[in-house]
Design a protein that fits this description.
The protein has about 150 residues and is an alpha+beta fold. The chain has two domains: about 35 residues, no CATH class; about 100 residues, no CATH class. Helix content is about 30%, strand content about 10%. The protein has a two-stranded antiparallel ribbon with strand order 1-2. A two-stranded antiparallel sheet has the order 3-4. A hairpin with a 2-residue loop joins strand 1 and strand 2. The two termini are about 30 Å apart. The chain binds iron/sulfur cluster. Iron/sulfur cluster binds next to loops.
Length: about 150
C-alpha cells in the first residue's frame, strides 16, 4: 500500500469516527474516485461543475470535466493519452466569454463573447452554453460535435 493510500485511509477513518466533513483539493481523479462523495470541478478559479462522484464520472457535463476524465490512462483508447491543449489563463490574461473557450473543443463565437450562465442540477450546474449529455453538447450549432468520453 502506498503512503498516499495510507494517508487517505487514515483521513477517511477519522471522518467516520468524528463525523466531520472532509474537503480534499486534488488534481488526481483517481483519489477523487476512491474517496469523494461529491465533487466540485474548478477551472481558472471558477466552479465549472458539481455533482455526486458517480454521476460526474459516469456522465460529465462540462467539457473541461470530460477532457480531464478522457485523459485518465484507464480510459484511454489510443496509444497516446488525450491532452488538453493550451494553458489555464492567469488573473490578468482572462479571455472574454467563457474562461475555458481557448481550450475547448466545442467553443463557438458565442463562447468567446458571452460568459455562460450556470446550468441546473440535472446538468451538474455546469458553467457552459452547451452542457454535455452522454458526450453530446446540447443545442450546439454543429450537430456532429461529440466528446471523446
Ligand atoms: S461555454 Fe463554450 S467554450 Fe465554454 S465550456 Fe461550454 S462549450 Fe466550451
Amino acid at each position: 500500500m502506498t503512503i498516499q493510500a495510507q494517508i487517505l485511509d487514515l483521513l477517511l477513518d477519522l471522518r467516520k469516527q468524528t463525523g466531520m466533513a472532509l474537503v480534499l483539493i486534488t488534481h488526481d481523479m483517481g483519489v477523487v474516485a476512491e474517496t469523494a462523495e461529491r465533487v466540485a470541478v474548478l477551472y481558472a478559479g471558477q466552479k465549472v461543475e458539481e455533482a455526486p462522484v458517480g454521476e460526474l464520472f459516469g456522465d460529465p457535463h462540462h467539457p473541461y470535466t470530460a477532457a480531464l476524465l478522457a485523459s485518465l490512462p484507464e480510459r484511454a483508447t489510443g496509444r497516446e493519452l488525450p491532452a488538453i491543449g493550451g494553458v489555464v489563463p492567469g488573473l490578468f490574461d482572462r479571455p472574454n466569454g467563457c474562461l475555458f473557450s481557448p481550450r475547448c473543443r466545442f467553443a463557438t463565437e458565442r463562447c468567446t463573447k458571452v460568459a455562460p450562465s450556470r446550468q441546473g442540477k440535472a446538468a451538474g450546474y455546469a458553467l457552459c452554453h452547451y452542457p454535455l449529455v452522454h458526450g453530446q453538447p446540447v443545442e450546439h450549432p454543429d450537430p456532429h460535435a461529440q466528446a471523446t468520453v
